[in-house]
Fold these 3 entries.
Entry 1:
Amino acid sequence: MGAVILPSNLFADLPKHLPEELVQTLINAGSVRIERIVSDGHASPDGFWYDQDQHEWLMLIKGGARLLFEGEEQPVRMSTGDWLNIPAHKKHRVEWTTPDEATIWLALHYDMPK
Amino acid sequence: MGAVILPSNLFADLPKHLPEELVQTLINAGSVRIERIVSDGHASPDGFWYDQDQHEWLMLIKGGARLLFEGEEQPVRMSTGDWLNIPAHKKHRVEWTTPDEATIWLALHYDMPK
């Protein structure tokens, strides 16, 4: 029969103090990984760009953020419920997250079949 | 450089009238599929059980629901932010979704490497 399946909550267990962005893996199934990311006013370090081997589906669950893609003048503003898909090796960085509250992201990293 | 990446919103474009549950595929990447599911008081038909070949990571984004797993006496109550992982072929059904507002789910269907 297996164990009883009980839900966890994405808003639960937010650390009171967050010196760095917090990345927690919820599911790791080989080529698919689901993460909860909690930012508290954090941004990517100056000059840093994410350059990932996998595609990333990213949703902003709570808070607010600005994401900059390489080659763009203006960052993309993200609010609660906003999602986008970042192709592998599409360089991007987090310019800003709201300092007023914790920003919670849901990130899904996945491979695309050739 | 590619097209500008702009977000979509998971709360947007909710139909005013929903005679049946609405399932929309957001990303289909071979072995990974992300869906938005909108329920408006819908439940699974009497005697119906989901029996899926893929694993499903399921999060309740908005609203409320009760999910029943085969062999369990009591359904699992799900509220905003709750998520759980349903192994492939773990039979389950939606017993209830709140009639007061639309219930929005995020569902990720994926394979687990052997």
Note: Residues 68 and 75 of chain A are 4 Å apart (CA to CA).
Entry 2:
Amino acid sequence: MTLPTTDPVAIVGASGALGFGLAIRLARTGAPVVIGSRDSDRAIEAATRAGEIVPGGSFSGHDNASAVREAHIVILSVPFRNQSETLTNLKTALRPGQLLIDATVPLAAAVSGKATRMLGVWQGSAAQQAAEMVPDGVRVVSALHTVSAAKLTELDRALDEDVLVCGDARADKREAAVLIERIEGLRCVDCGRLEMSRTTESLTALLIGVNSRYKVHAGIRLTGLGDVLWE
Amino acid sequence: MTLPTTDPVAIVGASGALGFGLAIRLARTGAPVVIGSRDSDRAIEAATRAGEIVPGGSFSGHDNASAVREAHIVILSVPFRNQSETLTNLKTALRPGQLLIDATVPLAAAVSGKATRMLGVWQGSAAQQAAEMVPDGVRVVSALHTVSAAKLTELDRALDEDVLVCGDARADKREAAVLIERIEGLRCVDCGRLEMSRTTESLTALLIGVNSRYKVHAGIRLTGLGDVLWE
């Protein structure tokens, strides 16, 4: 199913598992995907690989800063260890009006701790750190923490779960939701202000534990909601 | 549907909304319920009211300490503001071998903050505070944070959600799950060690926000799990 075309989406860290999974899922809906990586050769390699998986997809590969310049919406999908450095490097590339969808999770694994535990982030969450670091006028929401990279990557696998979206402006969250819900089987739920990312990010660590315990790729679903979540 | 009889369950704080909802839902499955409250008159009143709602149910009302002495499994369902004081008062009533299911959530509302925000608890979570405070030999798990008191209380309302259970011993979590899953529509998921309560407790604040935003009583469901979670 191809949806109406959309503006290009840049995915910073798209050579990683989550970013790559998002890239191919989004491209399959007709969204042009700009794959960013620290190293432009890796980005080009990932774009080529993605094109083989989604032959009709539109992919290009660039270093992260160049990727960010190509799109209005940017998904940040890097390990927490690299989030701060990446955002510093993007300071001159990001521009006012852009929407940054931060998917970073401060797992303790970033400092050789367990992936089932979280780090305390001074700002409260990785998303709040992102909001502090982006240039003025760049809008930040957080989302996509709980979606399994493995499931995204297996295109035959049906998705059926929620994406918990946090941000300080409803319009920004809706804009992220419109993009993310292009991917069949993902429903976005407004989970409040950006500070609520403290909880949504930590669900990743909880799910990593559940996945290991039950040998599954679990996701999150909120029950009891109505049909229209983004009127 | 009445399940095989079970030992009595004590619910500390059962004159509160969540505790009362659990009391009537559990009694409806044939479990004898010992209703505890700080004030024995209030406990007796709640037991009478519960008996009117579930005519076939077995209810008794006692002050919290007496209630705890009547049962092997104790559900602690009090506001965070009262958790520490309650556990101090139960120090001589709780006995080794008992299982305490802690449902306490350290909402910032406890200190006149927002119910969509959490307090930092020195031990990491309310459940870990409970584990520190109970006498040696009392086993502590956490559960039931995300189940809506309103939905529990409306007996006609079908439940269809998960209960995230944390604890340091699998056997303790299974024991809690066997009790909780008597309630139709609740499925228990092992979410790891007691320290993971930091995340499961904070989901309550997140759901309070979602409920207010969407005018619903949302619950949590983990997707992608198999059929047998407690073999």
Note: The two ends of chain A are 23 Å apart (CA to CA).
Entry 3:
Amino acid sequence: MAESVLRVTVWGENLHEQRDAAVRAIYPDGMHTTIAEGIREHLGAGARVRTATFDQPEHGLTREVLDETDVLTWWGHIGHDRVDDRVVERVHERVLLGMGLVALHSAHASKIFGRLMGTTCMLRWREAGERELVWKVNPGHPVARGLPDVFVIPEQEMYGEYFDIPQPDELVFISSFSGGEVFRSGCAFRRGQGRIFYFSPGHETHPVYHHPQVRQVIANAVRWAGVGPQRPYPTFRTGLHSPTGWFERS
Amino acid sequence: MAESVLRVTVWGENLHEQRDAAVRAIYPDGMHTTIAEGIREHLGAGARVRTATFDQPEHGLTREVLDETDVLTWWGHIGHDRVDDRVVERVHERVLLGMGLVALHSAHASKIFGRLMGTTCMLRWREAGERELVWKVNPGHPVARGLPDVFVIPEQEMYGEYFDIPQPDELVFISSFSGGEVFRSGCAFRRGQGRIFYFSPGHETHPVYHHPQVRQVIANAVRWAGVGPQRPYPTFRTGLHSPTGWFERS
Amino acid sequence: MAESVLRVTVWGENLHEQRDAAVRAIYPDGMHTTIAEGIREHLGAGARVRTATFDQPEHGLTREVLDETDVLTWWGHIGHDRVDDRVVERVHERVLLGMGLVALHSAHASKIFGRLMGTTCMLRWREAGERELVWKVNPGHPVARGLPDVFVIPEQEMYGEYFDIPQPDELVFISSFSGGEVFRSGCAFRRGQGRIFYFSPGHETHPVYHHPQVRQVIANAVRWAGVGPQRPYPTFRTGLHSPTGWFERS
Amino acid sequence: MAESVLRVTVWGENLHEQRDAAVRAIYPDGMHTTIAEGIREHLGAGARVRTATFDQPEHGLTREVLDETDVLTWWGHIGHDRVDDRVVERVHERVLLGMGLVALHSAHASKIFGRLMGTTCMLRWREAGERELVWKVNPGHPVARGLPDVFVIPEQEMYGEYFDIPQPDELVFISSFSGGEVFRSGCAFRRGQGRIFYFSPGHETHPVYHHPQVRQVIANAVRWAGVGPQRPYPTFRTGLHSPTGWFERS
């Protein structure tokens, strides 16, 4: 079970920020820093938040770091293909064992999200700085807590259906865009002992991670997903040979 | 949509049958032949059933074969790791586009099933020739049609929980074993445009695929999953750039 | 199982049509007649379609009529409270036994839909003749078959979230409106042996049931839900006392 | 949101206990007292637990009591039909608004559980003092926390499939019985803003509520369901007329 203080690792690809002055203007210390700030703002002393980035050895996601992580948030885009498969496999294993994963925006196309979903996770898109409305469709869900019935993101990349994911275990938000498109923008999944939340707002050329309600959603999602590493289930990875029947275990 | 005649390819690993006289005694022409016979017995002129095996070029699952397949059934065990990743990728793509997949028994650990589920798909097991009872828990489901409330497989390998799969979209059968274990033995999933049915009875050292009700379930599952290849959805693989808003498509 | 010819009963409240000339101008023979025509148009000789209305004895839903009904479609609004509870109970029983139910538009607030859902089924609404876009979010679903990725209803009553229903077993359509609202407009449920489809387009003051794609959806939903009456499951209504263990039934 | 101290009301029918000396021998102060003790044992200072019974005015479930209840547990059997419909309606409303409900054993046939599920909730049964094995099928679920992979209830009434409920939002436990039957014994549902857990062990003629693991499950379920009363969602009961579009709410 999670420690009383939730240990959060915010992973940011941090490549757009190095190449593109427009992105750097919005996120001078990288998107990961802004995302981490938003989590700290809401969870306060209840969380210990660190960051990790693509350029670090093992992308900053060593065994040691993951050993101390209850929830991992993930933002990536242009570096998806270059993420080391061994790191992906390591994160996958941790999620199944109970580490939470909060996948943000273009992380829909990351290796780790695709590995967990089993589908293409592709979608419709348009970069036109459109108004996004985020509607609650599950008002009792912990990730929706404290949010209004609808909130507005003035400028966003459009993400639209069909979004090729397995049906979410719980659908929490649906967005509409100025262009008329709709999108399942907040989706909760359970895989193994782990909880996964996908939240779509967050394009790099708009100040979405400075938006108060977006920060609230991400903090809620971190708390919801933050079960933390569990004891491996008995059939994990290798299965369990049970030679003599149930009574052996009573 | 599926042709009026359903095109079924029964894939059998066919390795145990070559090595083990006990298996050959039960399945002299290979398990795949017996499985194919069971489907023909129930679907008759409504299906055209062929077989394919591990030892064939591309495991018998060339593009040409898959082009003519509405539903693929899969039985594998000791050869899982040696199945060519390119064939797995090809089958995965077809399933997302609408080809049905019926995964049988030890196929829980196949690459293709794991790729679609995103979890380990591991379970508890024991080879002790135990009595399995298969109970319907979804009497209105097409895969349960024509089956009694419960049927008995006199001797089976025990498969028990925890079975590490995403929650099935529809749970159709639960089994109990003499040793007291339980197992979600009939599970329906939807991924992309495809339908997947996992059915656990079927160990190679017992005549399970000669069992009349097991054959009925597999034929039902083939019919249920047999939507057949569909037009790719607009966001398939690459996503869809929609430059000017919804009205462009009206 | 359903007969090869699907027996469909289209239930229409037919009260607005009697009171309101504007409605009568759009639906001179009643909305039920137009809905029935749309189903016949798509299912042709595959269906035998009749209608029934509020003013008939037992609202036209006698035991005899239901005995010959594989799928019932339901449109009601101002008469909800006056629908006889015995008829509601009768329809409820039939749905659990396998009769399909297609609930249209304001039927969200009908007694029968609420009885099956267990929640308030209430929603946000506005009558302002807004443009509704209906998006497919489940392209492989039978009810989405033959439909474009999105279709436009030029003028509709707005229905918006939060829609207080249990999470649908399958979500097929999401709509957006000119006002920015979103709505889960096509929802599939399974209860007992029956299939239920809720489809929200259809206000009485707009010619929605003349709309070609709306008619396609309703016909698809009728076909999907049309399993037809089944043998009662062994535990229906009273439960089943099983005095001596599973072997009694083998 | 729930107070930091969870307010739990344990409702017991308390009729068997008055009539049947065998039941009284096991539960001298009523089953509700034993159930309440088990919850206190596990939740300690984290919960304030009271009881209410059938014979009290309004069955002990007045508005005042429900105003101070975050989670209600329900055990009933021979008095189901005599429970006042107004109390059922009141409890139903509270659940939709966020009060948790933990339905125990024969509460499957209670008015309130049926009202929330929309199905018959009937099942197969036998009173033969059989051994029940309760298996975890969802090891990461909060209600499974601290439990072994399987636990044994030496003597229980058999409850078997088909259990006529909507597919649970999360299936947590499956039981097997000496007679070979299986049962979905731990089922989680969400309705409105409320959480509902059904747990089947608990016949009145066996000391099931003295069983340490059964008590652990019930305490876990109470904690999981204990969101507590929430602000009504905007469309509760009457729907929400939104005259001028989403922007009115921004």
Note: The longest strand of chain A covers residues 124-136.
